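anyone else get weird line breaks when pasting these?? whatever heres mine. first is seq + tokens for prot A
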Amino acid sequence: MIKTPPSFLKTTLLLSALALLLAACGSVSATTQAKAERWMPKPDSSTTWQFQLQGRIDTSIPAEVYEVDGFDVGKKTVKKLHDQGRKVICYIDVGSWETYRSDKNQFPKSVIGKKYDGYPDERWLDIRRYRKFAKPIKNRIAMCARKGFDALEPDNINGYENDTGFPLTAKDQLRFNRWIARVAHRNGLSVALKNDGPQAKKLVKDFDFAVVEQCFQYDECGQYLPFIRADKAVFSVEYELPNAKFCERAAKLDFTTIGKEYDLFARPWRPCE
């Protein structure tokens, strides 16, 4: 048997350790780069955004950011918007069950609660037991990532404030919302806090920006200032107020704000100018 010289062993071990160190550094660098590449919108009242959930997507609207339905809008449209220099947000429901979605049968009846007031085809979900419907929610978020979306807007994540048929608490909501944010981030998507103003201060570290409805009409915009202070954008929409009633205030708060109608077709689209 040929003996290996001790000096050779030391050199070999040293080179192996160096190789492992470089590989580890490369891995950390790649992870850091992936995190840095996630879209992180900044507060800017001069930015324009479009919120369209019905009808054929009108890509001619001169908005820098589009929010569209994750189920209805395909990869081709997302790419077209990207080619035009737009960022695209994927809208999906996570806190309510919809009768018209293709994955509706994946939600057990035991977690489906009362009808969402004003939306007869939607029912609230028991987010305390979200593990029972985690699979379809994860699949929805993965779908958004596969289609190339930049971000996720998970809707109905304030069930604890509504009559859901379940005794939901603010603590239940925090747990569920943070889980949604983690799943989005694992899929490479930035994620918006939607309408949970009372808990915005507690959730600002978990979410990358906010999407808010009618905060000027109901005098709730101040709840989302923790996002602005954290250098994170707030995209807001008003349905009933004319632009003259909110655009000046939106500029002072540095909110990105538009006027729309409840049906959320492409038009009308009323950006603040």
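and prot B, same format (seq, then tokens)
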Amino acid sequence: MGLGGISIWQLLIVLAIVIMLFGTKRLRTLGSDLGSAVKGFRKSMSEDGTEQPEDGTQQDDGDNHASKDK
């Protein structure tokens, strides 16, 4: 018995049908597009986290509205 009652033979048959329908070139392109999307998402998430200083305080960028001239 395989994953959730699905045997390995059933998975192989489904895989063969998917390859016949879409072809290997299209599946390879889809996989690389998905991989680059995940990589871009991870990069943007890591860039958001690096904007704060290491000690946990917020940086003063000069846009403090309380200290502006009245």
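btw re prot B: Helices lie at 8-22, 24-49. The mean pLDDT is 78.
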